[in-house]
Amino acid sequence: MTLLVFTDLDGSLMEHESYSIEAARPALNELAARKIPLILNSSKSAAEMTAIQEQLELRYPFICENGAALFRPNEETIEFATPRELWLQRVHALRDRFSYSFQGFADWTASEISTLTGLSKTQAEQAKDRCYSEPILWRDSEASLHKFHTQLEAMQLRLLQGGRFQSIQGMYDKSDALRWMVSKETEQNPESVVHTIALGDSPNDAAMLNASDIAVIIKSGKSNQILCPDARQLIHTKIPGPAGWNEALLEILSLYDAGQLKKA
After folding, report:
1. Disulfide engineering: 216 pairs with which of 85, 169, 199, 246, CB 3.0-4.6 Å?
2. What are the strands of the beta sheet with 62-64, ordered from one edge?
3. What pLDDT score was predicted for residue 66?
4. Axis-axis angle for helices 121-128, 110-117 (nearest 10)
5. In DSSP terms, which residues pair with 199 in a beta bridge?
6. What range does the domain containing 90 cover?
7. What would you measure as the largest C-alpha separation in the chain, in angstroms?
8. Quick check: 223 pLDDT over 80?
9. Is residue 191 over pLDDT 90?
10. Which domain-ending residue is among 120, 153, 170?
């Protein structure tokens, strides 16, 4: 059996406010010792995630901007999204026409993003370097939000709720790259059974969780909004952030060692 672990970052592997991963170190070390691929799958930009990959000493592929693109070391990047530059002006024109009250990363300076997120100036500059999506803070009514959703859908765009921001993006999600990787692994190793584990804490993780063999919902302020009707096996952590991430993953690895992980 080949295990592939896909994980969200903010509020899951990383603390939501401090961005610390220390509570997850035991499970991270265990994955590294077993050479089990850990694939980061986040709303963060490719620039941000490259820095995090280096911090964690990961050499595996990663998935940026809510599933927009799969970056593979020394290989061609696989894109699932339409570039942001092709639709952002139309979205801003819609905002002006209907006087919607929201702002996003394209409106803010790196300093303003740093203040909003707690990121350093360098990290905020990396966060602003986006190619496929536009994180926003909605400051208008629910009625206007519903209308905006409908208008975005007519433009083949969608709005996804993350841990801190909502993200305007194309009609893709975090599951597309996961499925692509599973298909590629199965193609390259037809004798192996691929078993996927996914961990996330926000509604924008739902598609990834539903597409996995074991879905781990990390406790958070928005975790009760995650719907997982298609999850084959579902785990809810009682602890938020990397501590909950660590506990769940070590539990799953124990089940694996005991031969109790079965493909649905």
Report:
1. 199
2. 62-64, 69-71, 78-79
3. 95
4. 110
5. 7, 216
6. 84-170
7. 60
8. yes
9. no
10. 170
List pLDDT tens digits, range 17-36. Answer: 899 999 999 999 999 999 99
Any domain includes 226: yes
Q: State both tokens at 171.
A: 């009609």
Residue among 114, 100, 139, 92 nearest 48 (CA): 114
3 state SS of 136: strand
Q: How confident is the model at residue 80 (pLDDT cuts 50, 70, 90)?
A: very high
Task: At 192, give phi and psi (nearest 5°).
Answer: -95, 145
Q: Point out the catalytic residue in the list 8, 176, 205, 213.
A: 8
**Res 121 pLDDT > 90:** yes
Residue 257 known to be catalytic: no
Residues 177 and 61 grouped into a single domain: yes
Quick check: 138 pLDDT over 70? yes
Question: What's the alpha-carbon Rg for the chain, to the nearest Å?
Answer: 18
* In a domain? residue 264: no
- The domain that contains 111 carries what CATH number? 3.30.980.20
Contact between 242 and 38 under an 8 Å Cβ cutoff? The reply is no
What is the distance between the terminal CA atoms of the chain, rounded to a whole angstrom?
A: 13
Whether residue 263 is contained in a domain is answered as no
Model-level pTM?
Answer: 0.93
**Domains contained in the chain, number:** 2
Measured between alpha carbons, how far is 81 from 248 in angstroms, rounded to an integer? Answer: 31
**How would you write 20-79 as a 3-class SS string?**
CCHHHHHHHHHHHHHCCCEEEECCCCHHHHHHHHHHHCCCCCEEECCCCEEECCCCCCEE
Q: What is the CATH number of the domain that holds 75?
A: 3.40.50.1000
